[in-house]
Amino acid sequence: MQLLELIIFAGLAAIVLYQLYSVLGRRVGRQPEDQPAPEPAGPVVRPADRPLEAADEGVSLSGLAAVRAKDPSFEISHFLAGAKGAYEMIVKSFAAGDRPTLRNLLAPGVMASFDTAIATRETEGRTESVEFLHPPRADLEKAEVAGGGDLARLTVRFLAEFRNRSKGPEGEAVDDRRTAELWTFERNLKSRDPNWILIHVDAAEA
Fold first, then answer.
1. Which of 18, 63, 153, 206 has the most neighbouring CB atoms within 10 Å?
2. Which residues of the chain have pLDDT under 70?
3. Which pLDDT does position 96 carry in this prediction?
4. How crowded is residue 156: how many other Cβ atoms within 10 Å of its Cβ?
5. Which residue, 143, 141, 144, 130, is CA-closest to 179?
6. What's the 3-state SS for the chain?
7. pLDDT, position 61
8. Cα 95 from chain centroid?
9. Which of 101, 163, 98 lies closest to 133 in space, CA to CA?
10. pLDDT at position 35, please?
11. Could you tell me the sign of the dihedral formed by the alpha carbons of 131, 94, 179, 159, in that order?
């Protein structure tokens, strides 16, 4: 009789343990990992969703970024190549006294200064010519947008070596020179004219 009771009790215990395991082994209710990820405090804006523009409220661009915002076609390599060509043309035209060419490349104030120097040379009966010994080096020094956002101004540092030949009453002289100058070019970004005008010249350290 005792053996039979033990068998019955053992069977009942196994049934109870199985039921407990069935209940406790299941995920009841919401688990911590089931909680949704917290929503971000504000809207998520990816760079690809909204490109930066100068017209955005509260956004202020400077340097090349400001120039490119106004003129997306602007390329610094193309600009510097053109600046080197303009530098050589202006230096040679100044030496030759070629005023018509200079007027197309210089702002009125710079043209007036160059014209005075040319006139002085002519009064003294001297002529000059320039030959570049090496292509000039051009590096961007500064970029900005002015005039309410319509004018782009880029300052370029030029390093150059050239041979200057001059003739005058005293005879002929040949002078090899090395120069370092800062030239500032300007362009109206609203104009269809792609040309840049030289508006200022400063001496620079080599």
1. 153
2. 1-61
3. 97
4. 25
5. 130
6. CHHHHHHHHHHHHHHHHHHHHHHHCCCCCCCHHHCCCCCCCCCCCCCCCCCCCCCCCCCCCCHHHHHHHHCCCCCHHHHHHHHHHHHHHHHHHHHHCCHHHHHCCECHHHHHHHHHHHHHHHHCCCEEEEEECCCCEEEEEEEEEEHHHCEEEEEEEEEEEEEEEEEECCEEEEEEEEEEEEEEEEEECCCCCCCCEEEEEEECCC
7. 60
8. 34
9. 163
10. 47
11. negative
Choose which CATH entry (3.10.450.240, 1.10.240.10, 3.30.70.270, 3.40.50.720) describes domain 63-203: 3.10.450.240
- As a whole number of angstroms, the distance between CA 201 and CA 182 comes to 6
Q: In which residue are the tokens 């969703």 written?
A: 49
pTM of the model: 0.70
